[in-house]
Amino acid sequence: MTPGRLTALLLAAPCVAQGGAAQVLTAAASVSSAEHRVDAGYGVERSSGLLGAGRVTLGLPPRVELDVTAAAGTLERDSTNAEERHLAEVGFGARYRPLAWLWLETGVAARTYSAPVAVQRWTSLRLGAEARVPFFGGRAEGVGRLLFLPLVAVTGLEQPDLAISAAAGVEYRFGPVGAGLFYSLERYDFPAQDGVTRFEQLSALTLRASARLLPLSGR
Amino acid sequence: MTRARWLLALAAACAGPLAAQGGTADQLARARALYEELQIERALPLLREVVSPQWPFEVTVAQRVEAYTYLGAALALARRTDSAVVYFRAALERDPFVQLDPERFTPAQLQAFARARRETFAVGTRPIRSGRVDPRTDRVRFIFVTTHAAAVRAELRAAGAGTRLVLFEADADGVRELAWDGLGPDGRLAPPGRYELHVDAASRLRNVQDSAHLYFDLRHDVRPLEDTLPGLGAADLLPERASASAAAGEIAAGLGVAGGALAISGLLANSALDGAGTGAAVVAGVATVTGLVAYIARRRHPEIPENVAANDRRRDERRAANDSIRARNAARLAQTALVLTPAAGVGP
What we know:
- The complex is a heterodimer of chains A (219) and B (348).
- Chain A is mainly beta.
- Helices cover 6% and strands 68% of the residues of chain A.
- A 10-stranded antiparallel β-barrel of chain A has the order 1-2-3-4-5-6-7-8-9-10.
- The longest helix of chain A has 14 residues, at 3-16.
- Chain B has 348 residues and is α+β, with helices and mostly antiparallel strands.
- In chain B, 48% of the residues lie in helices and 21% in strands.
- In chain B, strands 1, 2, 3, 4, 5, 6 and 7 form a 7-stranded antiparallel sheet that branches.
- In chain B, α1 packs across α2 (40-51) and α3 (61-77) packs across α5.
- The A-B interface holds A 33, 35, 37-39, 44, 133, 135-140, 142-144, 164, 166-170, 172, 181-185, 187, 189, 199, 201, 203-205 and B 249-250, 253-254, 256-257, 260-261, 263-265, 268-270, 272-274, 276-280, 282-284, 286-287, 290-291, 293-294, 297-298, 304-306.
């Protein structure tokens, strides 16, 4: 199955979701300690900072979720060759659960790195899966996610040879609210241009809190 | 053989039985007509022929009783009272239910018949009719008779069960009707089976006793009952306590998340960028601690509350369903009707 067909399938999934099930609306807020590393042939440039994010998820039980995400923050430079940059991102995702513990996921995201000298825009298509394994009597879930980014468009750069995003963490649930701690990593390996290979990586330790808004009772 | 000969042969074959039935009935009809015309002396020989051992035709009990009764009545009219009493007694011995209609017979005949009743002691029961009785609104009717005053005890006996229910125990004279509500001695509906109505009577006038029996089959007419749901087996219930392996699974889950975070940091991170920060170690530590805490909690409290609740729900649902079925069955049983069929004896 091609990435396009899989995306179309996931985007059409809400239409085939069970009409009788109550929709679930969840809001989440997170704060991440992010570290950005890039090597464009001049050594590793490091910058880090706090990113704030919010996400609203519409659940169409039992198999479909749609979400909208927005994130923003400033990455202060940690190395002399780096420069401060502001990160802003919006994204849309759709998830389909074929198994009780497995979600197939797709989405698009638009990210902007704003630096004093330039603004770089990233647009990406994400495809992958997330495993959620309940433990601690259902009070916690172990989360592992691996996404491939087959289409990444970056201002002034070619499509990367390798673009992946992975995450692992634990999410705790207390009735309608939840809290989670995650480690995530994005890696981009760009092809060589003028004999220079560009590597870029964004890792983050994220603390996230969520609350179910609708329905107020239920799962 | 021609068609005419076949018809003749068929007619000859049918003639015997028809003549036998017609012979006794015709004879009785002629005797009755003569009696009604008060031609007593002509009626008597016809009646005597019917009760004679030499009478060539079949005589039913009813016909024989009728013949004896008309013989008694005719002789009473002829003022031969002692002989009349003898024939009336013969009729009563065969059928204690015999009665003389006071509007059709003379006082002399009635007196002779009353004397015959006093001198004869017999008890009889009227055959039960096949039928259906709703014990909520109706009763099973039995009728017995004694030829004169007697101490009577009527019992209903369940064949083979030894159960006895006294329906009547008192003095009686003549025809008596008994009503049975269909209940046994325990107050419950009598179970299906073969029953005997046993009537013992001791004469109050003479030192003689007699008894009569009536057999019938009793059947319950009830709508089919529903089966209750079977008990919940192990396969129908969720485990209510976690196994030791489940506790170990808690650690495995925590370590799995920790391993995943470290693998992302160690294997997926670009080594050309000097690693990927310390966040993975934090998540790995938290996940491991969570797994350990979950393991300890699971060992200390192996109960699985959600499974316990689910099993309780299933038990409650089954109990409610069975209560409903029992209520419906009780309603059907309450509408049970009794179906009675005459039987020949205790055995089949």
